[in-house]
Structures are given as structure tokens and as C-alpha cells.
Amino acid sequence: MNDSFMIALNAQKATNNWMGAITENLANIYTPGYKEKKISFQTFLNGSVLDNSSINFGQGKSTPGTSNANLFLEGEGFFMVKGADGKTVYTRHGEFDFDAEGAYKTKDGLNVQGYILNDKGEIMAGTKAVKNDVYQDTILKGGAMDLPTTNIKLWIDPNNGKYLGKYDDYEIKEDGVLYGKADGGKRKVPLYKIAQASFHNKNGLFEIKDHQYIETAESGKPVMGRAEVRSGLLELSNSGFKDNINSFQLAKVQMELANKLISSNKELLQEALRLVGGS
Q1: Same domain for 70 and 51?
Q2: What is the pTM assigned to this prediction?
Q3: Residue 279, SS3?
Q4: C-alpha distances in angstroms, 68 versus 5, 103, 155, 229?
Q5: How confident is the model at residue 1 (pLDDT cuts 50, 70, 90)?
């Protein structure tokens, strides 16, 4: 009886966690950038229910953003952002914008990271340029590159209101290159490349905040991201209504069974105590 009672208690606790994850998924169906929480039940071991919690990093659909500074990643990868502590955080939620000083930031003030480019559009690693074919070859092989990133900043000249004092506008292309534009768009100069990374084990990432993750020993070190960048778009939640409702119904049935088993065990225990007390 003790074993079945413990099994029921653990099943009740695990199912409660499952229902909590489903509720969170349903509440965030329309939250841009939200990633669905998944819980799977594996087996019984010594009277305990083992469950595995993970994040569904599948891509959500795109939706128009509020400005061209908003970005959407089409394919595998994460944007790289940094806070005041200098630690790199990874996110797919590209609700970015330039502040009054021209710094490119997330909605909560983290600095979007990029690579400085030369006038040929090549990434500068210190004083040396990384050839574009070397960069692309590394991406295709799923490798990492020790390239320094920097805070992206299009300083705005207060005298003429231009970016970096000489560009009227900017444009972010599919390859992630940010161009400064002048002369009505006739002149475009590559300034930065939006930094992105990927992981061989994305489920090993640790979520420190909504939409924001840090690497762990389980995730492994970041490798070069290969997603295409879409300017003016945001990624919607990848949480679906139908699947989560179906899961909630299953969880409800499992909870009812666990509660009945607990109730039956309590009745048996009470009867045993009555018999012992009456003897």
C-alpha cells in the first residue's frame, strides 16, 4: 500500500507540474518570441514518476514588427546580446531598436552584438579581416570562430541628425549585414554584421529570463549560426492551442486517477487504523 501511495503522490505532483506548463503555454500563445514548454513522462522507478522538462525551440511564424530595427531569424540560431556585466545572452526574440544615442538594444536594454566590418563587408578580427568564404565554410561545418563581438552603435550626430554623422538611414539585409545609407540610398556602406550563434544541444541552455538563455556545460559552446535575418519582422510564439488543449485533457484524466488512488489508499489506511484501535 505504501508503494502505491507514494506512486500516486509523485504522479499527482508531476501532473501538477505538467498542467502548470500547459497553462503557461496557453497563456503565451500570442506572446512574441515565447517558446513552448514540453513535459514528457518516461517511466516508473522505485515508486516515482520520472518526467523530463524541455523547451521547444521550433521556429514560430513571423509577424510584422514595429520598425525595421526588429529582426526575425529564419532557421537555426540565436541573436547574441550583452548586459552591463559583459556576459553573453542568447535570444530569438528580436524586438530591437536604436535608442536616442543610436545604440542598438533589446527592449529591456541589453546591447545587441555584431561584428565590425571593413568596406569590403569582411569581418574584422582585430586588425585582420576574415574572408567571407572562410566564414561561410565554418558555418557549413557547424564550427565555432573566436571572433570578438561589439555593441552595435550608429551614433547620431546632434548637429545634423545623421547616423555616424554621414548616413541618412540604415538597412539590414538577409545575411545580417547592417549598411549605412546615404545619397538617397545610392551609397551603401557595410558597417556591422549581426552576430548570431547556435548550439549542438539547444535543450541544454538555461533560461534566465523570458526569451533569454545562457550556455551551460550541457549545451556546449556556441557555434556559428546559419539563420537568415529578416528586417521588420518578429517571431511569434510557437505554442499551439489545439495540442495544448489535448494535453490538458490528458493531464486532467491523469490527475483524477492519481487523486482517486490517493483517496483509496487513505481509506484503506483509516480502516487499518480503526481495526488496530478496536482490537
Answers
A1: no
A2: 0.81
A3: coil
A4: 58, 15, 17, 11
A5: very low
Q: Which three cell numbers stand for residue 274?
A: 480503526
Q: Write the pLDDT tens digit of every residue in 101-148.
A: 999 999 999 999 999 999 999 898 877 878 877 777 777 666 676 788
Same domain for 117 and 201?
yes
- Kindly give, in sequence order, each residue whose CB lies less than 8 Å from that of residue 148, ignoring residues fewer than 6 positions away: 115, 125, 126
- Within a 13 Å sphere around the CA of 120, how many CA atoms are in the beta-carbon half? 9
Average pLDDT of every residue of the chain:
85
Give how many domains the chain has, as a whole number. 2
Identify whether residues 42 and 114 lie together within a single domain: no
Q: In the predicted model, is pLDDT for residue 222 greater than 50?
A: yes
Nearest of 34, 96, 64 to residue 232 by alpha carbon: 64
The reported pLDDT for the residue numbered 201 is 92
Residue 8 sits in the same domain as residue 76: no
Please compute Rg for the chain using Cα positions: 26
The answer to whether 190 touches 121, Cβ cutoff 8 Å, is yes
29 and 99 both lie in a single domain: no
C-alpha 105/C-alpha 142 separation (Å) is: 27
Structural domain harbouring 230: 62-235
In this prediction, residue 165 carries a pLDDT of 92
Condensed to tens digits (0 to 9), the pLDDT of residues 14-31 reads 778 888 888 988 999 988
> Is 108 found in the same domain as 172?
yes
Q: How many residues does the chain have?
A: 279
Provide the pLDDT for residue 145.
67
Hey, which residues does 112 pair with through a beta bridge? 81
Q: E strand or H helix at 246, and its extent?
A: helix 241-278
User: SS3 helix, strand, coil % of the chain, rounded to 5?
Assistant: 30, 35, 40
CA distance 240 to 27: 11
84 and 165 part of one domain = yes
Residues 144 and 187 placed together within one structural domain of the fold: yes
